[in-house]
Design a protein that fits this description.
The protein is an alpha/beta fold and 598 residues long. It folds into two domains: 324 residues, Up-down Bundle (ABC transporter transmembrane region fold); 244 residues, Rossmann fold (3-Layer(aba) Sandwich). Helices cover 64% and strands 10% of the residues. A hairpin with a 2-residue loop joins strand 4 and strand 5. The protein is elongated and about 120 Å long.
């Protein structure tokens, strides 16, 4: 068994390196944006120097030099316009690149979810998966935006500001440079403490999504069993934990970001004023230089403040990336074709040879299962809940891999068939049929362009679904809501039957297909089933033993083993487990009939 992705601990360096790899296809666009950013920053830095020249050289009473002042004014306006225009384009470029990267990452995550096996979905709440595809990828977007547009821009700005400072005064610029290690230490301290907080925050968001998804899907049961208060309390507990983690983050920001950075700003101003004050004892202090330094100091701490605030997003994004990459690296994939051969299903002969299976690697749910279903035969699986009936179906449909024994179709190992061949020749009808938010036609065809509208109608007529479809306002183009909530369970099951017959399978797999329909609809389905089984291998799970009396072979399962096998009459003569189950159901039916008569 592989380790679930929620427990994976990807190092930050690997996470950041992996995130950086998504930028490789955008090298050219990044280069252009970076060049625009550098020019825009240089224009920004030139502004205070031009003002310094004006103040020190030309701000003199009764002295107005038209030519140099005009040049300075035009230069200042030109520099400002270049800065504004290039900052606009570089910001659009960086943001666009970030959004394209997130689009690619989201598609990668969604594609990976489609490849994961049922083992993964058995162990992972649906809301948690949704949270990773939506919330966590959105959190990663903030990283790209902050790194590409804020971190890079702030870094270039700081470099440009230091260059401007050194041009004005080397000694004072060196004093300011000494503050950088302290600021870097502050950033590292904030990152260290905030990482733990954000990990908890993301986990609580995931738990809230999982609880919300569960509540929405089970709302009818929640209201029927009066579970609103319990669910509200459980959700409130998670929400309170999320609130506490957010408050911890706010306290960190309140202490380590704005106040700390402002303290460094005050220290820098004190150093600058002290320097110019001491210098004024021996020589004249140039007002232009003083103005330029004050301007640079303001500009110096603006990007630092931006970086500190972006560290919040950076930490959130790294935690989100750990969760997303953990999902991308999950090894619990759906079983796929093995080997180079490309067998085809022509007859539909199904064989289980000494199959033993366990979901968790500890407890066997199937033990030494062996049977054969010949073409055209119907093999029924019966037994109490937990006996292993659905597990046999899951293995035949290759939803799980087996380690002991083998499953064969037409003499070829199940694992050697391609997914396309297996799904095209094996039709599955589940007890709880699933309908997509589309129309009737597309729910039967399921996007298969090779199936024509005429074939869809023939399949619906074959299973007698056309009787209710023709009464719909839009007939075959009638919209279906989410999960087909506007249709009855019987109608949904009929559409599921039509969907299966549209592909004309060689092997028919029925997981208690008539359990959720009324008696009248069941009779119609039973008639359709008799026609469907002709020329096809049928393997059916049955709870109502009356529906499988004509089966060619009945397998009675108990605690993962086949304890009896034979026809209906043969099993009744044995007077074993099947006989007891049949007598119980027969007595139940008779008691219900008696109650109805009375």
């Amino acid at each position: 068994m592989s380790t679930p992705y929620t427990k994976e601990n990807l190092s930050k360096k690997k996470v950041v390196s992996r995130l950086a790899s998504y930028m490789k296809p955008h090298k050219k666009a990044l280069t252009y944006a970076f060049i625009m950013l550098c020019i825009a920053t240089a224009s920004d830095v030139l502004g205070p120097i031009l003002m310094k020249i004006f103040i020190d050289n030309y701000l003199t009473p009764r002295n107005f030099s038209w030519q140099p002042l005009t040049v300075l004014a035009v230069s200042f306006i030109l520099v400002y316009m270049i800065s504004v225009v290039l900052n606009y384009f570089q910001l659009i470029s960086f943001q666009g690149i970030a959004l394209k990267i997130i689009q690619k990452l989201r598609m990668d995550v969604f594609g990976k979810v489609q490849q994961l096996g049922l083992e993964f979905f058995d162990q992972t709440p649906g809301g948690s998966i949704v949270s990773r595809i939506t919330n966590d990828t959105e959190g990663i977007k903030d990283l790209y935006v902050s790194v590409l547009s804020t971190f890079i821009q702030s870094t270039i700005s700081l470099i440009g500001i230091f260059i401007g400072m050194f041009i004005l005064d080397v000694r004072l610029a060196s004093f300011c440079l000494l503050l950088m290690p302290l600021i870097f230490l502050l950033m590292q301290t904030y990152r260290h403490f905030s990482a733990k907080v954000f990990r908890v925050t993301r986990e609580k968001v995931s738990q809230m999504n999982a609880k919300l998804s569960e509540s929405l899907q089970g709302m009818n049961m929640i209201q029927a069993m009066r579970q609103q208060k319990r669910l509200r309390n459980e959700f409130g507990t998670i929400s309170s934990q999320y609130l506490r983690s957010q408050m911890k983050n706010i306290r960190l920001i309140s202490f380590l970001v704005r106040p700390a950075v402002y303290s460094f700003y005050l220290i820098a101003v004190m150093i600058m004023l002290s320097f110019f004050g001491i210098q004024s004892f021996d020589s004249v202090v140039k007002i232009g230089v003083l103005y330029a330094f004050v301007n640079y100091l303001d500009r110096f701490f603006d990007p630092i403040n931006s970086v500190m605030f972006q560290l919040t997003r950076f930490q959130q994004a790294v935690v989100s990336a750990e969760r997303v990459f953990g999902l991308l690296d999950d090894k619990r994939l759906a079983p796929v074709k093995e080997g180079t051969s490309d067998p085809k299903i022509t007859e539909g002969l199904v064989e289980f040879r000494d199959v033993t299976f366990s979901y968790d690697g500890k407890k066997d749910v199937l033990k030494n299962i062996s049977f054969e279903a010949k073409p055209g035969e119907t093999v029924a699986l019966v037994g109490h809940t937990g006996s292993g009936k659905s597990s046999i179906i899951n293995l035949l449909m290759r939803f799980y891999s087996i380690e002991h024994g083998g499953i064969y179709i037409d003499g070829e190992p199940l694992k050697t068939f391609s997914d396309e061949e297996l799904r095209a020749k094996c039709g599955l009808v589940l007890q709880d049929s699933f309908l997509f938010a589309s129309d009737v036609m597309e729910n039967i065809r399921l996007g298969k362009t090779s199936i024509s509208e005429e074939q869809v109608m023939e399949a619906a007529k074959f299973v007698q679904a056309d009787q209710f479809i023709d009464k719909l306002p839009g007939k075959y183009h009638e919209p279906i809501g989410e999960r087909g909530a506007t249709f009855s369970s019987g109608q949904r099951q009929l559409l599921s039957f039509a969907r299966t017959m549209a592909i004309d399978p060689k092997i028919l797999v029925l997981d208690e297909a008539t359990a959720s329909v009324d008696t009248e609809t069941e009779e119609a389905i039973q008639e359709a089933l008799r026609k469907m089984r002709k020329g096809r291998t049928t393997i059916a799970i049955a709870h109502r033993l009356s529906t499988i009396q004509d089966a060619d072979q009945i397998l009675v399962l108990h605690q993962g083993e086949i304890v009896e096998r034979g026809t209906h009459q043969e099993l009744l003569k044995l007077e074993g487990l099947y006989h007891k189950m049949y007598q119980l159901q027969l007595g139940d039916v008779q008691s219900k009939s008696g109650s109805a008569v009375s």
